[in-house]
Amino acid sequence: MTQKLERIIAFFSWLIITLFIAYFKFSYHELWKDEWQAWFVARDMSIGKLLSFLYYEGHPALWYLYLKIFTPFSQIVTETALLSFAHLVVISSAIWVLFFKVQGQLLLKWLYVLSYFFFFEYGIINRGYALVVLLSLMVIWQLQQENRQTKTLLFSLFLLCQTEVYGAMMAMGFGVVLWAKAGYTIKTEIQKAGWAILSGLFCFVLSVFPRTSGHVAKTKGKMLSLTDTWLTSLQGNLSNAFLPGGTKDTFVYGWTIHGLLLSAFVIAALYWIFRKQKHYLLPLAFFTGMMILFSALVFMGGIRQWGMGYVFFMSLLLLQGLHFRTEKISLWLVLTLSIFQMVHGFRALKEDFKLPFTNALEAGLFIREKVPEKVPVVAINKFETAPVGGYAGRKFYELPSGTPFSYFRWVDRIYIPTQGEIQLFARYKNVGGVVIISPTPLDEERFPSAKLWKQFTSLNYKNENYFLYSLPVK
Fold first, then answer.
1. What is the pLDDT of residues 342-370, one digit of tens each?
2. What is the total count of domains within the chain?
3. Which residue, among 21, 115, 13, 111, has the nearest Cα to 352 in the 3D structure?
4. 430 φ, ψ to 5°?
5. The dihedral of CA 276, 282, 283, 286: what is its sign?
6. Which of 82, 325, 387, 421 is the most exposed place for a label (fewest CB within 10 A)?
7. Residues whose CB falls within 8 Å of the CB of residue 205, separated by 6 or more in sequence, listed in order
8. Is 310 in the same domain as 183?
9. pLDDT at 209
10. Cα–Cα–Cα angle for 252, 254, 255, nearest 5°?
């Protein structure tokens, strides 16, 4: 195959995949609260306040600072389109680097980009995980070059630490790759890479710590026994990540014997694929071990987080330069993992096509059309109602403070005001009544005068519904 033909194939591969992702993002995907939250934080905070706020989020600064570039245009372009476009630029750049810069077989690149995680979780859903994909590919590109640009490699490793905690783990994993390929000796490049990673980790820790009291306990997930915690972490990071759909969602349903057996198969498959190149096997074991430890001891996470293990696996596979013609068993193992990935991704696309993520869009558009701007909307549980405000194009009010809000803090307690408090707030705002939005029906004894106006309970993916009430002052 000539170089010109390779570039033509690469261009059309990039174009076709990017256009499909863009079409689906702009036409069908509804933003969830996690997507809205990052946008609100970037839009409504100064950079200084944003950086001091991140320890509530548990994510480093890069995604928020990147989104801030787009927020000034929210006056002329819809925010949903802006956020989707900002994310599309990142994932499209990742696809470009994969097809034009990273060396490797075309089949392997297509299997990677069509995987559930690359295409759906990090391609369709507008989260900062896409930056992990892009920067990991930048690192791969540089590691494959004999005469690489050291500054580009070091900067990519540093930025990788500013994406997610999993990106920071990945940067350390790539550091082990460099060290192993150098014969476990500390050469000048290894020292520079080590300093880049350490400085990246320092900035990461500085941005997300110290955590508020009880934050980790609240974000770790449901309380499990010690055995259940470790087995759930093991299954989640192995069979649930590498063979999605092979078991039910581990976070929701917990571990099973079937899932643990599939996890054992994953371990055996990964060992076989990298058995001849131990300088990739060691980094993979190192990274996977960190993922399992982190899930068990700090934050259990879910399939979106566990999928970072698959991203690192594919990164090493591209670095390895696996020759499918000579490694037939490895080919079938990779194809087996890829089939699970693609089938699960197709199911996810189908669900996102058929159902909205939540009823936030429907509720938000109703409020935008039916509720005058001068009528305050009081939110019960701002954590759940924030995306409705995004689609409504207005800020709701929270009590007891009586202030408008957009973003929320994950550690905030849910405050349920009384009817009298809301009526007092309405008098303060000098209006005859307010609209109340709640993710659940209001207690009739607590709010005897509130009248149900509209409920949004149609079938949705996350089973998140909304109830709209009117409450007069008297």
1. 999 999 999 888 888 899 999 999 999 99
2. 2
3. 21
4. 60, 45
5. positive
6. 325
7. none
8. yes
9. 74
10. 150
